[in-house]
Design a protein that fits this description.
66% helix, 24 helices
């Protein structure tokens, strides 16, 4: 009969809760017909009433019935929550037009049908406040439902444990207190009372009566509670009205309503994110102007541009790019987009739904790897196709002549390049572009002293093509910086979301973790795009450095001791080349992020090392020439090493080993440094070492061939 009393008690508690809800006008039936419902507040108050009732009556049930018996109360409260919140949430979806807006968005985004191509897009601001209300409503129920199920799991375990007492606990011995008392009374009436000696001996040999009675009482209590638990379990598992046995309803009506609402939320949130990212791309701005004004329209910024212009010996104009990056190295796009991503992902995490979390993470990956990254890559593609810096000789920071600028822009107008194109960097191969680039190649210069000579004020007139070149240079540097900062921001966003989604259930953590790892992959894609931009940047600079490097080809390294001493004061190559590199770095360092600048220096170091290595293999050396080469290589390596914190010393490892081979006293000395005798890893292969040794005019070819390397 214990289960009947428990059932009656739970029904009474449920009626008390419903009465309190109706008294406070928290049920739809108790509200006036045209009353304004504050859905989030109402839902929170309903669930608070349920929680208070559970906290108050759960200890009472456990003390009067058994541990775990409050599972029946949990089932009643879940049923009542289902009855109260299901119509409330469905009314919210209708009144707030959640389903209507989601249907409109699906129609707008379905561009494959002719009927929806001309429909006006929904303003994302209309759904912003609605999304906040949806996630708050969903979180209230999701949190309550999660905690309710945790309590139900624990209650079931406690209830089954109580049932085990019936089978594991033995009943009390027949010589229980009542039996022993009756037998002792009957024996006392038929026999004389025992003597004092016998009573003292018996008392010393038998346990105290209080200890025996206490143990038997505990056994009886355990058996009673076990019997009650067994009765409750049998009733809950056989009652046809309760078809869930010892479990809560797996998917209740309110669960279905909330999941449907979250499905609409995902549609709305995805639309809000995608449209706002596109809007941020469209409204991208930099602290400095990046528009090209019509020819003839001048202002103070044009005058500052003209004062900053210098001319190079090749006739190209050099613009002082650092002044465009005084306020910021990135455009507004980065901050706007990542603020939006953090806002949407935090909102999805607050909804306490793994499906919403995974949907938002997938949308972030899709938007960032498609619209965002492709737009920035489109800037790189457009710049490469328009100016062809590798062949035209007009690289970053240089203004072409009027004829060349007009020709480049005219050639670029025939190339179709979408701002959202994701095609790789390709140089145009048209015949007109080739002829232009051939006529525009800068002449070789042995000195960079005239690289920044002042330009006559009479020639200062920024035409439209030249203004366009300045704007494109700024856009290129901004795109590279945006990609670099976005790479770091994606990693930061991933770390932040790992903490935000820590409350997600254990069963769904693997799915959420997989989506978070996709953010890391997107970050790697952006880093790869940034490297493409830096490669374009390096390729736009190296044509200007190549003439300075080629002076090395004419340098004589068949030196005698006196010639080596003279080279200390008369350096025909290294000083001019390092000055040329330094001028390029001074121009770009204030325009790039620290990481991009380090990678730029690394790229130029690779160019210098590879070009110098190729030229070394075309020269011949003496012992003193080998010493001079070693000095030049170490000076070159030291310059690039001190220019950045990025390690570039390995770029010159092959050159250093080549110089070491060229300053040996005799051929056989190489064996002291080769193989196991070496304290470093050799970057030169065996056949390359033989070729380098053959550059020494005083080494015998026969001895070189007989070396056992």
């Amino acid at each position: 009969m214990a289960h009947k009393g428990l059932e009656f008690y739970c029904q009474t508690v449920r009626k008390i809760v419903v009465g309190a809800l109706e008294k406070n006008a928290l049920t739809l039936s108790s509200l006036p017909p045209n009353a304004v419902v504050r859905y989030t507040t109402t839902t929170a108050q309903i669930l608070d009433r349920m929680t208070l009732a559970l906290q108050k009556h759960m200890p009472i049930i456990q003390s009067h019935w058994c541990r775990g018996a409050h599972l029946a109360l949990l089932q009643h409260l879940q049923s009542e929550v289902d009855r109260q919140l299901t119509p409330l949430i469905r009314r919210f979806v209708i009144e707030r037009r959640v389903l209507v807006l989601a249907s409109q968005i699906k129609a707008v985004m379905n561009v494959n049908t002719k009927q929806t191509q001309h429909k006006e897009e929904l303003d994302p601001r209309q759904v912003d406040e609605l999304l906040v209300e949806v996630v708050e409503l969903a979180r209230e129920h999701q949190t309550f439902d999660k905690n309710l199920r945790i309590l139900a799991t624990r209650a079931k375990a406690a209830l089954l444990k109580e049932c085990e007492v019936v089978t594991t606990t033995a009943p009390p011995s027949p010589q229980d207190p009542s039996a022993s008392s009756s037998s002792s009374s009957s024996s006392s009436s038929s026999s004389p009372p025992p003597s004092s000696s016998s009573s003292s001996s018996s008392s010393s040999s038998s346990p105290p009566p209080s200890s025996s009675s206490s143990s038997s009482a505990e056994q009886l209590a355990l058996l009673y509670r076990g019997g009650v638990a067994q009765d409750v379990v049998n009733n809950m598992t056989t009652d046809k009205k309760n078809g869930n046995g010892l479990e809560l309803v797996h998917v209740s009506q309110v669960n279905e309503a909330v999941q449907e609402m979250l499905g609409h939320y995902i549609t709305l949130e995805e639309y809000y994110m995608v449209q706002n990212v596109k809007k941020a791309i469209k409204m991208d701005q930099h602290s400095h102007h990046d528009t090209v004004r019509p020819f003839g329209v001048r202002d103070s910024e044009d005058e500052e541009d003209e004062r900053a212009i210098r001319t190079s010996s090749s006739g190209h104009l050099i613009i002082a790019l650092p002044r465009y990056f005084r306020a910021s190295l990135t455009s507004s796009l980065v901050d706007d987009v990542f603020y939006l991503l953090q806002k949407c992902s935090a909102r999805a995490a607050y909804a306490a739904s793994e499906h919403a979390a995974c949907a938002m993470l997938n949308t972030i990956n899709h938007v960032m790897s498609r619209d965002y990254k492709n737009m920035l890559e489109g800037v790189l593609v457009s710049y490469n196709q328009r100016y062809q810096p590798t062949t035209s000789g007009v690289g970053i920071g240089h203004l072409p002549s009027e004829n060349l600028a007009s020709a480049l822009l005219a050639g670029a107008s025939s190339v179709s390049s979408s701002p959202l194109s994701s095609s790789p960097l390709t140089a145009s191969s048209s015949s007109s572009a080739s002829s232009v680039s051939a006529s525009a190649s800068p002449s070789a210069s042995a000195s960079s002293a005239s690289l920044l000579s002042p330009l006559s004020s009479s020639t200062l007139s920024l035409s439209l093509p030249r203004r366009q070149k300045i704007a494109d240079d700024v856009k290129l540097l901004l795109a590279i910086n945006n990609l670099d900062v976005s790479t770091f921001n994606m990693q930061t966003l991933k770390s932040h979301l790992e903490k935000e989604f820590a409350e997600i259930g254990t069963e769904s953590k693997a799915m959420v973790s997989h989506c978070l790892e996709e953010l890391a992959e997107t970050s790697k894609l952006m880093a790869k795009s940034a490297r493409k931009g830096l490669l374009l940047l390096v390729n736009s600079i190296t044509p200007r450095l190549r003439p300075l490097m080629d002076v090395f080809a004419s340098a004589n390294y068949e030196l005698r001791e006196s010639d080596y001493a003279d080279a200390e004061f008369n350096d025909p190559f290294m000083q001019a080349f390092l000055e040329g590199v330094q001028n390029e770095l001074l121009l770009l360092k204030p325009c790039l992020t620290d990481n991009n600048y380090g990678q730029l220096v690394s790229g130029l170091a690779s160019f210098a090392a590879q070009r110098m290595e190729a030229l070394v293999m075309k020269k011949t050396f003496t012992f003193w020439g080998g010493l001079q080469l070693d000095k030049d290589v170490r000076k070159l390596s030291s310059f690039f090493t001190t220019a950045t914190s990025v390690s570039v010393r390995d770029k010159f490892a092959r050159l250093v080993q080549m110089a070491s081979c060229l300053q040996l006293d005799k051929v056989s000395e190489i064996l002291d440094y080769w193989g196991e005798n070496s304290g470093e890893v050799w970057r030169l292969y065996e056949h390359e070492v033989r070729k380098v040794l053959a550059l020494r005019i005083d080494f015998s070819a026969r001895e070189i061939q007989q070396l056992k390397l």
